[in-house]
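Continuing the series of single-chain predictions for the mutant panel. This is the parent chain; the variants come on the following pages.
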Amino acid sequence: MIPSSRIFVAGHRGMVGAAVVREMAWMGLPPPITATHAELDLTDQAAVRAFLARSRPDCVIVAAARVGGIEANRTALGTFLYDNLMIAANVIHGAFEAGVPRLLFLGSSCIYPRLAQQPIPEEALLSGPLEPTNEGYALAKIAGLKLCQYYRRQHGVLYHSAMPTNLYGTGDNYHPSHSHVLPALIRKFEEARLAGAREVTLWGSGEPRREFLHVDDLARALLFLLQLDDPPDWVNVGSGEDLTIRELAGQVQAAVGTRCALRFDTAMPDGPPRKLCDNSLLRRLGWCPEIPLPEGLRRTVDEFRAEVAAGTLRG
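Parent structure:
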């Protein structure tokens, strides 16, 4: 059982936070405590402290973050570092001050070194240089992870972290230049299909390998972790399978239904050559993903089209 009826989901309108809220409803849990950005700026320490003191949650899930793809990260490293560092520090320390006994912090697989051994085990943290294009975001997430670990060790609070791999699915951001690779591909191929284009240009060489996880699987993993009495300080959450960006493009093409030719712009950055997380620890604890990539892609393309038709598309 989830050990709390008063869970504050920070970032409930984002892709991950919204998935957590949906999963809580499916499990029959009470609606979580939430606050929009207009109601609570998580980079404002005083506001966060006052909100947590007033709302008195029993558990906090930190799903809020400034996120983006390679282009967004590499052109705003300082912004990504500052905003995410402030969110992590304010919510984690504010929860501690408010007497919140349990907190689950969301990191990212980008915390690991650019050339980490593959698959990447949790022990690879801080064992080498980070990927330069998203170093600001990664440093903030490492700081949040370590703050949870040290508060748990120093103060006895059950603060722990989950490191998801590349996510996709319901509520993703489809901005043409600032989105992550998979939603960017969906948008490009759908626009090409509608325009009858014969060719689509993709960034990079197409050779890097990436792992993808549907956001609903992540939500299930997070609520699974909250049911553990002694969870790891941090744990990887992924599908356990990877593929090249070129192969991913082929699968997205199939889901969208377009046959246009592919051209790769090698002047644009690739990022790390491979990012596959070692998910054996979480599987030993009893969790595994349920949504295969082809199924998840079909579902996501249908949702993308529905959002376009309704005028609710993010990005």
